[in-house]
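2024-03-11 09:14:02 INFO worker-7 job=invfold-0412 stage=load source=structure_tokens
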């Protein structure tokens, strides 16, 4: 199940490969596998205490990270009879100023995502009270600590990690022996958590949290982290020194703590990012490429100028001796040179032996799958335009309606416009007043009313149509799939079902494409890209025996959140300044996603700015490595099925 061969907990410290790591870290293929592992650890603890007829004291976290763990525990309860009757829980934290009725409160979160679905006794649930008056707080915090002790202390504490390095809401500056108390939230934390609120300004500035000391007193601790947005803080916590600036680093002082993370969150660990620096490697072509481009970029030297000494003093002497530096440089250089093509659909009448795409058929049927209605132009707008202009039959399939990412003020603007227009035309306009009311109703509910979702979906649909028309794609080739898994009206989506797969399957079978482009961007903070990709992969797996599939290739692109590592790229499509400008124009058609969008994260730049910066940065790296110099580039990785 595990992705890497993480050795036994008693062994890892003695191994060279782990010498940079101060915390026992297990890397799983994906968040689901990691979550199932953690859920099983908790279930085992609960069952053991049941045999001993005592209570199991469980410290819990909220946020995105533990969600799949709760889902698995609920499944174990429903299908395998795991009972929580002997479980006593203590939550890490709660926003100050929010109560159980507030949909953004952690109390609400815990009930709707976990407690309401298991047989825990309500008197055994403890979550800090966010509504207490200031005067009562100090006493209340002391009682919270005492209560944990009264139950015998925490058997297990589940943790996520914030990008500030917080555990619980212990932000940088927290002391190693701090107890439950009121804290100020870091700006980055408030930005990261803003998605649950309609307006980022509504995120509370304070919270009540267990202290670092409270957490460290737990007998066993597991911290989970998923996705590359956590990679930097994970590497810093696991490999860095213990410091107040990274409160999670205090975990290094605990004797039974593990980090359970996925590949994305692990990507900046030394043993994964630059394994040749910590162990002898077996030099596969992929690893060779990774090491050589790393060396070139580190030394700011073109590949063909790298020397024996450069290899030797950077942990690559075995590579140098196996194949010789001269030959390795040439091989890697040629590989990257061949990734560059201005013909993403294949260059007609040319020898295609070393090109990323086939020359034939000269006119290909192409489907660009776009998880949200703007990922197509943000992530591959230049390539999209080239495919159209080079005469391919380009279809775009928008997988979800994207309706969670339209702000209320934008929705209101459109409804009022439609209402005023109806008035002008003397048509029925009363229905619009109800819609306006629905916006206010939605503000106090976790789930956005269906009527409002419909309007938001239409807003995004109009924008996508406009962008495609700007690229001269006929309307008949624009497909809105509105996959059902997405239609929950909140940021947490349903698990995909066969209903989602059959919609995607019908489209692929109908078009019988030669090329499919899909988002392989697994860093999207809310997981929609990952679900959308998995649906496509499962459909392609089902279809693989159909004749048209012999001539179909799948290319993955990365979205607004994350770029491929240079070594992962298999096709790089250069963009001229003019093409980059047209791409920007197409992104601008997505007006509801401009000017501080709902899911912006901590990056204040607009999507077009992020896309251009990324496309330029990749072109610069190609240039730095001594390949050709271009204005910008879009990159792709082929998926072999
Ligand atoms: C939640 C908590 C926080 C989160 C952390 C990560 O109760 O205390 O420390 O664990 O902010 O949040 P997610 O999981 O949403 O990335």
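2024-03-11 09:14:09 INFO worker-7 stage=emit residues=641
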């Amino acid at each position: 199940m595990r992705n890497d061969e993480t050795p036994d907990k008693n062994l890892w410290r003695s191994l060279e490969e782990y010498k940079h790591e101060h915390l026992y870290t297990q890397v799983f293929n994906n968040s689901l596998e990691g979550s199932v592992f953690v859920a099983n650890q908790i279930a085992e603890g609960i069952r053991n205490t049941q045999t001993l007829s005592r209570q199991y004291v469980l410290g819990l976290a909220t946020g995105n990270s533990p969600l799949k763990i709760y889902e698995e525990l609920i499944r174990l309860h429903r299908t395998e009879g795991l009972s929580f009757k002997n479980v006593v829980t203590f939550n890490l934290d709660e926003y100050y100023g929010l109560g159980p009725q507030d949909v953004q409160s952690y109390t609400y979160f815990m009930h709707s995502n976990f407690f309401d679905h298991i047989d825990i006794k309500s008197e055994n649930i403890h979550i800090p009270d966010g509504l207490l008056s200031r005067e009562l707080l100090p006493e209340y915090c002391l009682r919270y600590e005492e209560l944990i002790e009264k139950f015998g202390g925490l058997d297990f504490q589940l943790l996520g990690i914030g990008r500030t390095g917080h555990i619980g809401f212990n932000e940088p500056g927290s002391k190693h022996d701090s107890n439950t108390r009121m804290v100020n939230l870091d700006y980055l934390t408030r930005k990261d958590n803003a998605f649950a609120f309609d307006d980022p300004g509504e995120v509370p500035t304070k919270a009540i949290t267990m202290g670092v000391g409270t957490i460290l007193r737990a007998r066993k601790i597991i911290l989970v982290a998923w996705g590359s947005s956590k990679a930097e803080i994970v590497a810093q916590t696991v490999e860095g020194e213990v410091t107040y600036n990274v409160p999670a680093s205090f975990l290094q002082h605990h004797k039974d703590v593990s980090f359970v993370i996925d590949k994305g969150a692990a990507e900046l660990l030394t043993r994964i990012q630059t394994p040749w620096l910590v162990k002898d490697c077996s030099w596969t072509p992929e690893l060779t490429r990774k090491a050589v481009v790393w060396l070139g970029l580190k030394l700011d030297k073109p590949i063909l100028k790298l020397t024996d000494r450069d290899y030797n003093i950077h942990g690559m002497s075995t590579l140098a001796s196996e194949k010789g530096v001269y030959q390795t440089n040439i091989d890697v250089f040629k590989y990257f040179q061949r990734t560059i093509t201005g013909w993403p659909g294949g260059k007609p009448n040319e020898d295609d032996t070393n090109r990323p795409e086939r020359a034939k058929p000269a006119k290909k049927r192409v489907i660009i799958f776009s998880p949200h209605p703007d990922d197509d132009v943000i992530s591959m707008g230049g390539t999209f335009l080239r495919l159209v202009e080079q005469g391919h039959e380009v279809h775009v399939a928008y997988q979800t309606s994207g309706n969670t990412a339209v702000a209320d003020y934008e929705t209101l603007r459109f409804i009022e416009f439609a209402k005023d227009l109806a008035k002008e035309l003397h048509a029925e306009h009363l229905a619009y007043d109800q819609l306006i009311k629905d916006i206010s109703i939605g503000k106090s509910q976790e789930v956005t009313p269906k009527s409002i979702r419909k309007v938001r979906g239409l807003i995004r649909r109009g924008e996508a149509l406009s962008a495609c028309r700007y690229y001269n794609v006929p309307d008949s080739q624009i497909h809105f799939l509105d996959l059902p898994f997405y239609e929950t009206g909140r940021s947490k989506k349903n698990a995909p079902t066969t209903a989602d797969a059959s919609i995607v399957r019908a489209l692929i079978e109908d078009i019988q494409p030669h090329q499919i482009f899909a988002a392989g961007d697994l860093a999207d903070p809310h997981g929609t890209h990952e679900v959308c990709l998995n649906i496509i992969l499962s459909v392609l797996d089902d279809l693989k025996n159909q004749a048209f599939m012999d001539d179909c290739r799948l290319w993955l692109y990365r979205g607004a959140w994350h770029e491929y590592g240079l070594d992962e790229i298999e096709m790089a499509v250069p963009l001229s300044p003019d093409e980059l400008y047209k791409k920007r124009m197409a992104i601008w058609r997505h007006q509801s996603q401009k000017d501080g969008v709902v899911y912006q994260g901590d990056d204040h730049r607009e999507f077009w700015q992020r896309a251009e910066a990324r496309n330029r940065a990749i072109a610069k790296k190609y240039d730095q490595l001594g390949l050709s110099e271009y204005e910008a580039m879009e990159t792709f990785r082929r998926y072999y099925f």
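2024-03-11 09:14:09 INFO worker-7 stage=report msg="The CA atoms of residues 191 and 304 lie 44 Å apart."
2024-03-11 09:14:10 INFO worker-7 job finished
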